[in-house]
Every structure is written in C-alpha cells, then in structure tokens.
Amino acid sequence: MKLPFAGRLLAVAVLSSLSLAMPLSQAQADEKPKVALVMKSLANEFFLTMEDGAKAYQKEHASEFDLVSNGIKDETDSANQIRIVEQMIVSKVNALVIAPADSKALVPVVKKAVDAGITVINIDNRLDPEVLKSKNLNVPFVGPDNRKGARLVGEYLAKEKLKAGDEVGIIEGVSTTTNAQQRTAGFKDAMEAAQMKVVSVQSGDWEIAKGNAVAASMLNANPDIKALLAGNDSMALGAVSAVRAAGKAGQVQVVGYDNINAIKPMLKDGRVLATADQYAAKQAVFGIEAALKVLKGEKPNVDADNVIQTPVELVTQP
Fold first, then answer.
1. How far is residue 82's CA from residue 305's CA, in Å, rounded to a whole number?
2. How far is Cα 52 from Cα 280, in angstroms, rounded to an integer?
3. Looking at the whole model, is its pTM more than 0.70?
4. Which of 5, 109, 273, 291 has its CA 20 to 30 A from that of 131?
5. 213: number of CA atoms within 13 Å, CB side?
6. Tens digits of per-residue pLDDT, 252-307?
C-alpha cells in the first residue's frame, strides 16, 4: 500500500529519529566510567608517586575507565579539597577515590557525592567511622594498618638503638587525620613496650618545614632526647636537618613512614634508621580497583570494619 505524501513524511521522520537514537544509546552503553582521584598535597612525594601509579594503571586499562586526578597545595588545605570534590560532583564522575586531608571535615562533601549517585572509595587516611555513621554513610576504606606499620618502625628503633628510660619525641602528622593518630598510637605502643619515655608529641602537619621546626623545638626543650619518630618521611627529612643543625648527628636517631625516594639515601648512610613502606604507587590503584568493582555491581571484599587491608612493611638500611 502506498502512503499519502503526509504519511510518507511521518514515516521518514520516525525512521530518522530511530536511526539517530540507536547510535546514541549504543554510545551511552559503551561509555567508560570516569574515576576521579582526589589526593592530599602534591608537594609531598608520596602523593606524586601515588598519582604516577594511578596514571600508569589507567594507561594499561584505558579501555576500562577514564581517570581525572587532583591534589591540593598543602596538607592542611581541606577547604580546597572540598571544592575539588564539589567540582567532581558537578562534572558527574562515576566514582571518587579520595585521600581526605581531614577525617571529619570531608565527610559532608562525601555525602553530597554519594547522594549524587557517585561511588566513593576512601584511601590513605580513613574518614572518621563515627561521623560517617552519623550521616548514614557506608564508605569502604582501602589502605594499610597504620598503627601496625608505625609499631614495626618503633620496635626496630627500640631494639637497635635505645635502652629503657631513653627520652623520645613524636612528630605527628595533621592531628585531625586518622592515619596521623594511628601512627602516633603505633609509635607509642612500641615505646611503652620497650619502656621509653615519650617527652613530647607535636604536629608537623606532614610537611618538611614544619617537621624541621617541631624537631628543632623538641631538641631545644629536651636536650636528652635520643630519637625522633616522624609520622611521615617528609617530616623525617625536616627532623634530619634539625638534628644536624643542633650538632647531634649520630646522637639522635630519626625514623619515618612512607619510604619515599628522598629518604632512601638517608637510610643508606644512617641519617634515618627506618621507615615503613605502604606502597604509594599501588595505594590509588587498590582504591580504583575497588571502585570499578562496585560500578560493575560487585561487592568489594571488605572486612567486618568495612576495610580492605593493603600491605605495610618495615624498611631499614639496604
């Protein structure tokens, strides 16, 4: 049957709309998920290594997902990190893998992301479990046992270089972060077990300059200190400079945490006694893998505390 002219026009329009819609829906089906990696300070070598590892992984799996990576200027700039997350929400990423600058302050914007349908995975520094619970949030944490790692470093220091009753100082990271608190707890566990005297605990904000200033202050106020335990290697670098400036090289031991490249020559020549390796290049990758699993409708392999444990190991003189 031959359609009248108006009917033929309608048929052509319907067919045209179908031909346009089908490739679009196919394109949507084939669209790769976009994963946003939001880190702390990119002035810290640890996070640069983390970013490099994530980018290398994405390159190897380019057909599976796209990656957007961001970081903040310094370790305490949680306000800017919040703004970055808000930008990722607006840009409609599918997943957010975040190393929060503050364990509590980032929870509200994480809730915004979850409410927007974004899969969120927490890495490096754990979001406060109680604050998450108060917001009815279930955000898996992917990372190492920071307390265990710090305890391993502290135990090695006590065994190799200290005797019962020796005075030590702890240079803590940003005090409002869970990983800083856990590392300080691990250092204290080891010192108390070996009967050392912790004479000072002060925050070095994870940074070289602040770590240097805190170490110098501790050494001045406590001239009998025999060791400085730094919550990360950046602060340990600052502590090494302070020890040298005080004329106490070889007399005051320094330990750190992270095993960044800058610390390795110091491990070799003894300026730093030990550190802990939590595999910076793999940290974000572990989080990205968990996020992709969730996006596929699979459940991440978390433990009873909603944690996916990653490795941490003691590193000493090579």
1. 25
2. 9
3. yes
4. 291
5. 7
6. 999 999 999 999 999 999 999 999 999 999 999 999 999 999 999 999 889 999 99
